[in-house]
Each structure stands twice: as structure tokens, then as C-alpha cells.
Design goal:
Number of strands: 0
Order of helices and strands: HHHHHHHH
Radius of gyration: 14 Å
CATH architecture of the largest domain: Alpha Horseshoe
Largest sheet: none
Shape: globular
Helix content: over 70%
Distance between the termini: 32 Å
CATH class of the largest domain: Mainly Alpha
Strand content: under 5%
Amino acid sequence: MAIAAFKRAIEADADFTGSYSNLALIYEDRVISRRRKLSCGLRSNAIRRTPPCGQTTARYSTSRKPGAGKARAGESVAADPTYASAHNNLGAVYGKLGQAANEIASYRKAASLDPGYADARHNLGLALLRQGP
């Protein structure tokens, strides 16, 4: 059902990065080898449509090697500290590294920069749930 919804979203607005990224994440979560190639193509499409300072962050937030992406993601945040998506994606890198406090702080910063940024609030909620009481 989510796959169909994101495909419709792409048809409705082919320039919205989030639809490509989220569809790629769904395919990755399914760990289906034939869809892995499609997932990479969708992620590349999202990266091409992301503003320049967010490209590196987006690429590394979904990377299988988040340690290598930490410095790059930090550079994206440094390039534009007011860009909420860069902080959100840096949070994802911290999450993959198991650095919960930094992950949560990054999501909180993203949400404070853009109070209507649903992805940052969603990611923050998930990180807080994982952290527990």
C-alpha cells in the first residue's frame, strides 16, 4: 500500500525528493535483491533533486557505511546550518552509528528550524521510542 502511494506521489510531483527517498527505503527494508537495484536508482534520483548542500547528507544518511558519511554530513550542516534537512539526515547517520544522543539532538534541531518538517518529527519520535523511558 505504501509503495503504491509513493508511486502516485511521484506521478503527481516528479520533483519532490521525499517520495523517491521513502520509496527507496521501503524497497531496502524488504531486502529483496531484485528491488535493491531499483532502490539505488530511486535514491540517486532523490539525490539529484536535493539542493546541493543536502546531496552529500542525503547520500550518506542512507549509506551502508555511515561512519564514512559522518564527516560529509557534518560538512553539509556547516555549509548551511539553517537547512533542516541536513540536520535531519545527520541524525540518520548518527542513528546508524548508534549515537542516540547525537541522533536525537540532530532531529530536534531540524524540527526547530522547520516546525512543519514532518520527517524530522517522525524520525525524532522513532529515535525517542528506541531510546526508551
